[in-house]
Write a structure and sequence with these properties.
Layout: E1 3-10, H1 14-32, E2 36-40, H2 45-51, H3 57-65, E3 68-73, H4 88-98, E4 103-109, H5 122-125, E5 129-135, E6 147-150, E7 156-159, H6 166-181, E8 186-191, H7 197-210, E9 217-222, H8 223-232, E10 239-242, H9 244-257, E11 265-269, E12 275-279, H10 296-308, H11 313-328, E13 331-332, E14 342-343, H12 346-358
Parallel strand pairs: 1-2, 1-3, 3-12, 5-10, 8-9, 8-10, 13-14
Antiparallel strand pairs: 4-5, 4-11, 6-7, 11-12
The structure holds nicotinamide-adenine-dinucleotide (NAD).
Length: 359
């Protein structure tokens, strides 16, 4: 059956990097028989300029009707002084909420060819391949009550609420265990069960959920130790699963182990593995329109789409092998360039990947 992909380039470099990812999808469609239809939509600042809202009804309808969404990035200087309700970022948050994307998958993979780009010693990070599974629609970022109140003595007090229902924990646990089954079958659940009752329950539910996965080796780690272990010996991890806030912090830390923001893809999935796929970086207005952006994070997001939503792992491998080949050949955009390599622009990198896929 033909799968529908909503293409939402967004703002800044989003336009350029998504164009290269679309080239890759076209090759898979035209040369390798991937049955897809693509349709473009507006989101973020570009949508605000055209329609007065960062998430037009038409875009939401397109995203809801699609099997998967490919997003570039949103935001930029031009829209920074707009009221919060119509800022470009609202378009992205609206899509996540409306599509029920509760599971955020962020792989941190270090390509051996780029080991010297990390701030950590090459022997600590080379071969790194971690998958962080972050709960995305619950926890302290959404818990009620929240706010800033004035106490009787006139002092202000800020408060937020960390809440998780068992069902929210078990569904993110299931996502992590299913992913680990396709990897090295090890899951580390990160919590603060020694201090927070909510995550004490998180741990209990994880243990219960793991019973359905006898092959999985489940371990638990307090978040303070996990952050230390991520920079001390990151290769000990296979899949990490954690709450919204802990995942927010740990996934940025893990991303930086690889040293290159332009290389990292991500996926946000709903209960039926429908997903929105996007690079982890933003719209990089400082380099937008200059053919300088690295499109590989977006191209690798397409590989994740093929693996997690379109159920075409062999096509995902074709993309990943092509990226590896291009890096082996020393082709680099400016952000990952080192002496002796061939520097190319955004389109040049996309063309190199396409050529490697066809080779
Ligand atoms: P950014 O990720 O856009 O850029 C940070 C730095 O990394 C910049 O120097 C940029 O040039 C560089 N960079 C980013 N992607 C790159 C790529 N593919 N190739 C080469 N270099 C790259 O973060 P920022 O500057 O803090 O934010 C810029 C705008 O993006 C803001 O409006 C912000 O709100 C928005 N933003 C959007 C998202 C998203 O859409 N998911 C995420 C983060 C930030």
């Amino acid at each position: 059956m033909t799968k529908k992909i909503a293409i939402l380039p967004g703002d800044g470099i989003g336009q350029e990097i998504v164009a290269e990812a679309v080239k890759v999808l076209e090759v898979l469609r035209d040369d390798f028989g991937l049955s897809i239809e693509m349709e473009d939509g507006l989101v973020g600042g570009a949508a605000y300029d055209a329609t007065g809202t960062p998430l037009p009804e038409a875009t939401l309808a397109l995203a809801k009707a699609a099997d998967a969404v490919l997003l570039g990035a949103v935001g930029g200087y031009k829209w920074e002084s707009l009221p919060i309700a119509v800022r470009p970022e609202k378009g992205l948050l609206g899509l996540r909420a409306e599509l029920g994307l509760f599971a955020n998958l962020r792989p941190a993979i270090l390509y051996p060819q780029l080991a010297s780009a990390s701030t950590l010693k090459p022997e600590v990070v080379s071969g790194l391949d971690i998958m962080i599974v972050r709960e995305l629609t619950g926890g302290i970022y959404f818990g009620q009550p929240r706010g800033i109140r004035v106490l009787e003595n006139g002092e202000r007090q800020g408060y937020n609420t960390l809440v998780y229902k068992e069902s929210e924990v078990s569904r993110i646990g299931k996502v992590a265990f299913d992913i680990a089954m396709k990897r090295n079958k090890r899951v580390c659940s990160v919590d603060k069960a020694n201090v927070l009752e909510c995550t004490e329950m998180w741990r209990e539910v994880m243990i219960e959920e793991a019973k359905a996965y006898p092959e999985i080796q489940l371990s638990h780690m307090y978040v303070d130790n996990a952050s230390m272990q991520l920079v001390r010996a990151p290769k000990q991890f296979d899949v990490m699963v954690t709450t919204n806030m802990f995942g927010d912090i740990l996934s940025d830390c893990a991303a930086m182990l690889t040293g290159s923001i332009g290389m990292l893809p991500s996926a946000s999935l709903d209960a039926n593995s429908k997903g929105m796929y996007e690079p982890i970086h933003g719209s990089a207005p400082d380099i937008a329109g200059k053919d300088l952006a690295n499109p590989l994070a977006t191209i690798l997001s397409v590989a994740m789409m093929l693996r997690y939503t379109l159920d075409a792992p062999e096509m995902a491998e074709r993309i990943e092998a092509a990226v590896n080949k291009v890096l082996d050949e020393g082709v680099r955009t400016g952000d990952i360039w080192t002496e002796g390599c061939t520097k190319v622009g955004t389109a040049g990198m996309g063309d190199a990947v396409v050529a490697a896929m066809r080779a």
